[in-house]
Structures are given as C-alpha cells and as structure tokens.
Design a protein that fits this description.
7-stranded mixed β-sheet, 3 domains, binds uridine-5'-diphosphate-glucuronic acid, about 40% helix, Rossmann fold, alpha/beta, 6-stranded parallel β-sheet, N-(1-d-carboxylethyl)-l-norvaline Dehydrogenase, domain 2, 17 helices
C-alpha cells in the first residue's frame, strides 16, 4: 500500500520505518530539513535502539521529504506530529491543525487519514467535520510506544485502538486500516474499535494510570522513609498480586520525558474546559509527589554533607530514562539545575544524552555551575557525592572499587534504587536511596 506519514519526530519516523517493514511504500514528511536529510541518509536523528537498522533495511520503500505534495499518491495518511505543552499547560495543537490543513488539498474521496498524535478529547470529531465534504475517512489510532522500545512496540503492539469520529463510516475506515496493519493483526494483536472520544481518552488515561502508579509507589517511599520500612520490598510484595502487578512500581526520583508529564497536565486542562476538572484533581497530587521526589536529592545531600554550596556533585544520567537521549522534562537534569542553583559544582555524565545537553551553565549562590560530559568516570573525580539519576546499565554495572578512590568522599545517592547496595557498601560507600533500608 502507498502510505504517507506527516511528522518525522520520534513517533512519526519510527512509524514510517515500521510501516515500510510491513511492506508498504512510505512517504514521510517533515518541515525540518536537517531531520529529513539525516533520515534520507539512514541516520537516526535521535537515539533509539534498532531504529537505524530498521531504516536501512527498508530503505527502498522509504522516501523522506519536506515536499508535502508528494503525498498525493498515497491513500492512507498518518498524522504523527507533536502536541507539545502550551504556556497554559494545554496541548499545543498548532502542528496538528497545520498538518491537517496542509493535507486537505491532496485528499481524495475514499482516502483514510489516521491520527496517531496524543490529542485532547474531542479533536477527531472536530477534524472529521472539516473533511466531511471530501468523503475521506478519519480514524484516531493512538500510539503507545515507549522510548527505548519504540521499534518493538510499533511492530508488535499490545493492542490497536481504532477511534471512529462522528459522521465517519467506521466499517470502511477500519477495513482500510486493517489492511495497513494486516500482518500485525494476523499475529493475533487485539484490535478494539470505539468512538474517537473513547480512543483519545484511552491514550491519556493509560499515561495517567502509569504516572499514578509511579507516584503511588513514590508516596509509599515517603512513608517508608519515616517509618523504617523498605519500599522495594513493599513493591515486590504488592506486585505479586496480579491485579496490581510489579511493573512501574520502581520508586526513585520520578517520571519525566516528553509524554507522561505533559499529558497529565493537558488532561487536567481539558477536563477543566469540559467542566469536570474535579474528576482529575488527583492528578495534581500525582504531579506534586513527582516533583517533590526530585527535591529529596537536595535534602539527602544536605543531611549528608551539611551544606551543598561549594560541593562537587557528580550526577550519572541526564536522559529521562535509560536507552534514550531524550532530556525533555528529565528529573536528572532538573536535579542538576537545582543543585547548581544551591551553589554546587555539578558535573553530569550520560553515555547518549550528553550530546543533547552540552550545557555549561552558571548556577546561583555565587559559585554554582553545571557542566555535562560523556564519561561517567571523569565526572566523579574529586566529587563529594555521586547521584545516580538514570539507570543506564553501565552505571548499574560499574565497579564501585574503581569509582571510590577517585572521589573525595564515598557517598552515593541512588536516585533510581538501582544499585547493588551490598557491593557499594563493601567498597566503603555510604549509600542513600529512596524509601530504602540499607
Ligand atoms: C510513555 C508510556 O509508557 C508509553 O506507553 C506512551 O506511548 C508514551 O509515554 C507516549 O505517550 O508516547 P515513555 O515516555 O517512553 O513512554 O517513558 P516510560 O517508560 O513510560 O517512563 C516514563 C518515566 O517514568 C521515566 O522517567 C521513567 O524513569 C519513570 N519511571 C518508570 C519510574 O520512575 N518508575 C517506574 O517504575 C517506571
């Protein structure tokens, strides 16, 4: 099939390559010239495991271009542009509306437009009214991919959700989309058809639930810290209940990234607009727990070092999670900034995200400073403390006997509760974590 994908960010670029892998001829469009040029050369503009292989393997079926008129030949058009956070915390819909308007001149009767972006509930109904006269179809088909597993999640999703807007022939639209996803469906992937409002809500509800799970366990960590309990043992024990499950119950410095934080904020704004803001007041607490946990690093360092001003702090990790170079709303970066603002001399190291943030920023309190490097061993030289903020394997597997002698004092704050405390303790380290007993 001939398919177009509008938007070559994380979602769109991976989706385009994955659709080519399914055997389709794909035209992928973006207004960002540098990004398109990189993709044309088979180079991933972001770090995502297996993505470059996927690009190279399907090179002959992929066209990356900035020329929107090229989509004329396609019959199915995916919209995969970003919906970043606007100043009032709502979803900024500029790119969605822009992509849709740019697409309209090339739409023919019978074409299918497939929305993949995360949008406020009600968007698809509004857009379908706009194309009513063209007799084109529209389906909202949210994406649930995780960064770091984007290729796997796109090619083998847990489920496919088809949201049919008002006034659209759901049967015909679903038939076309089934054809696109034929090989995924043949492998038994569940496919759920619903109205588009439900589909839009499925996406934000899923992300809200995941954020809630993380903040729930982080709230338990706060309680554990004052009661002498251990949150990891607690998570293991409640996780054995299959109704609860152990996944996403890792306590630490909390969630970040380009999705969870902005999605829950935009969801709250949308609920307010709809007059049901009260239904989501709990998400405010989820967000406050999340931000509070970041501050815990400063508190622990103060407890251990007396004062932060003038101290050298090494931070392992800048990315919001391992196997990613994404620093959007990264807890690791926000902690680095906060420590620099308290007058610490902070050196962050990250194997991938160092490229995304080579900042050298002066902090406050006269001497605070933040710099970013790649090598995590260099970062600890002369440090008064080490903070593990992103659980990359190279950090988890690092030998503390190599790290300790380089530091001024052997203190480690395990912001992801990911280190083997026995190993670090036997290397002479004092270790502090989040809701942990050591
Ligand atoms: C998230 C969702 O997991 C995807 O299903 C969704 O498709 C995606 O957003 C999206 O909306 O596009 P992602 O942003 O890649 O995916 O990141 P997650 O794996 O969900 O992790 C989010 C944050 O939670 C990270 O900072 C991670 O360190 C943190 N986290 C995760 C914890 O603090 N504890 C945990 O137990 C799990």
């Amino acid at each position: 099939m001939k398919i177009s994908v509008i938007g070559c960010g994380y979602l769109g670029a991976v989706h385009a390559a994955a659709m080519a892998e399914l055997g389709h001829d794909v035209i992928a469009i973006d207004t960002n010239k540098a990004r398109i040029e990189a993709l044309q050369r088979g180079v991933a503009p972001f770090h995502e495991p297996n993505f470059e292989n996927l690009l190279k393997r399907n090179y002959s079926r992929l066209t990356f271009t900035t020329d929107i008129s090229k989509i004329r030949e396609s019959r199915v058009h995916f919209i995969a542009v970003g919906t970043p956070q606007a100043a009032d915390s709502s979803a900024d819909m500029t790119f969605i509306y822009g992509a849709f308007e740019n697409l309209i001149p090339y739409l023919s009767g019978g074409d299918l437009v497939v929305g993949k972006s995360t949008v406020p509930v009600g968007t698809a109904n509004q857009l379908s009214a706009r194309i009513a006269e063209l007799e084109a179809h529209l389906i909202w088909n949210p994406e649930f991919l995780r960064e770091g597993f984007a290729v796997e999640d796109t090619l083998s999703p847990d489920r496919l959700v088809y949201g049919v807007p008002e006034g659209i022939d759901g049967e015909e639209a679903s038939r076309i989309l089934d054809e696109v996803y034929e090989s995924i469906l043949e492998r038994g992937c569940p496919r759920l058809i619903m109205n588009s409002s439900t589909a839009e809500l499925v996406k934000v509800a899923a992300n809200s639930f995941l954020a809630t799970k993380i903040s729930f366990i982080n709230a338990m960590a706060e309680i554990a810290e004052v009661t002498g309990a251990d949150v990891t043992q607690l998570a293991d024990a409640i996780g054995y209940d299959s109704r609860i499950g152990r996944k996403f119950l890792n306590a630490g410095i909390g969630f970040g990234g380009g999705c969870l934080p902005k999605d829950i904020r935009a969801f709250m704004v949308r609920a307010d607009q709809l007059g049901v803001g009260e239904a989501l007041t709990f998400l405010k607490s989820i967000e406050s727990i999340n931000l509070r946990r970041r501050e815990q690093v400063t508190r622990l360092l103060k407890e251990e070092l007396g004062q932060i001003k003038g101290k050298k702090i090494a931070i392992w990790g800048i990315a919001f999670k391992p196997n990613s170079d994404d620093i959007r709303d990264s807890p690791a970066l926000s902690i680095a900034h906060s420590l620099a603002a308290h007058g610490a001399i902070v050196v962050s190291a990250d194997p991938m995200a160092w490229k995304a943030s080579t900042e050298q920023i002066p902090g406050d309190a006269d001497i605070g400073f933040h710099s970013v490097i790649q090598d995590h061993i260099t970062a600890v030289e002369g440090a008064d403390a080490l903070v593990v903020a992103t659980e990359w394997d190279i950090f988890i597997n690092e030998d503390p006997n190599r790290v300790g002698p380089l530091m001024k004092s052997k203190l480690v704050i395990d912001g992801r509760n990911c280190l083997d405390s026995l190993v670090w303790k036997s290397a002479g380290f004092r270790i502090r974590g989040f809701g942990r007993l050591y």
